[in-house]
Amino acid sequence: MEGRRLASAGEARAARFIAARFREAGLEPAGDDGYLQHLRLAQTTTRTRAQNGQERTRTGPQLLPREDFDTVPSERRLTSVNVLGVLRGSDPQLASEVVVVGAHFDHIGIRPAVDGDSIANGADDDASGIVAVIEAARIIAAGPRPKRTLVFVAFTGEESGGYGVRWYIQNPPFALDRHVAEVQVEMIGRPDTAVGPGKAWLTGYERSTMGATLDSAGLAVVADPRPSQQFYNRSDNIAFARSGIIAHTLSSFGMHEDYHTVNDEVEFIDFAHMTEMVNLVARAVRLVADGPRLQWNPGGKP
Fold first, then answer.
1. What domains can be seen in the chain, in order of their start residue?
2. How far are the Cα atoms of 41, 207, 208, 295 from residue 298, in angstroms, in the given order?
């Protein structure tokens, strides 16, 4: 899929693949076109002035409101989507509350060739997380209906500036004030030697009651062992957190050197570890969906 770069043909193929898996899992479509949520994205040029007074131009994608997007020439419009599926809650009191389960499906595309390979496949970053979201949907949908409503989301544009999650927050399928938590899954394909195989770490563990909730249920989840890396701020969860919604990322990224290179290949995935991570994610989502409402710890809200 050509590295699934934002607004590429490979990204579109990946989106259709994920939508088919959501359909097979029994999720309801929640986009504006079935499972697909189209972003209004356009190639734009901005002008900035440097300290020396020289004017510079910079081109790149930009999210636009409807009234501005409609005025953009078609050749500057970009096609990009999130993929959304819903599993509606069963509890009369809690079904109106929404928990998002997310991962990003985009990656960095085609890169300079290394030993003849120019495709950055992003097997760990973040195809592994997408697999966990798809499997969590399948596992949970096959069991008792969750108490809260679950929205499973494959976000695009994380690698390019969080375009997909920003669009979701501006255009949620349910009112944003109904969202009570978001669980992001990022890079679970290899174990982190700092915590051991079969274990995940949670970004911003101390910020809310999510970490303690998962730990008290016996899940192999520990605090992020590298807080200096600021991982809490480096995935789509941060956009939810800044909107007041309790949001964290589950990961087992151990700083491997294949990160953002053409060497992040499926052959290096540890499937025994990843299987444990997928089941852990499904259990974590079930706990958040069915348990007491999570709370920010004092000083934890961004």
1. 2-47+57-290 (3.40.630.10)
2. 38, 8, 8, 9
Asked if 195 and 231 count as a contact pair (C-beta separation under 8 A), the reply is no
0.85 exceeded by pTM: yes
Closest CA to 247 of 294, 200, 290: 294
CA distance 94 to 79: 36
Distance CA 16, CA 125 (A): 19
The Cα–Cα gap between 28 and 23 comes to 7
**β strands within 39-148, DSSP E:** 41-49, 55-63, 77-78, 81-87, 98-104, 110-114, 117-119
Q: Which residue do the tokens 């016996």 mark?
A: 218
Note the helical H segments in 142-245: 163-170, 210-216, 237-242
Q: Which of 86, 76, 109 is nearest to 23 (CA)?
A: 86
Residue by residue, pLDDT tens for the chain (302 residues) are 999 999 999 999 999 999 999 999 999 999 999 999 999 999 988 877 777 878 888 888 999 988 889 899 999 999 999 999 999 999 999 999 999 999 999 999 999 999 999 999 999 999 999 999 999 999 999 999 999 999 999 999 999 999 999 999 999 999 999 999 999 999 999 999 999 999 999 999 999 999 999 999 999 999 999 999 999 999 999 999 999 999 999 999 999 999 999 999 999 999 999 999 999 999 999 999 999 999 999 999 99
- Nearest alpha-carbon partner for 183 in 225, 140, 123: 140
Burial class of 145 by CB neighbour count within 10 A (0 to 12, 13 to 18, 19+): middle
At 185, which helix (H) or strand (E)? Answer: strand 179-185
Q: How far is the C-alpha of 254 from the C-alpha of 180, rounded, in Å?
A: 29
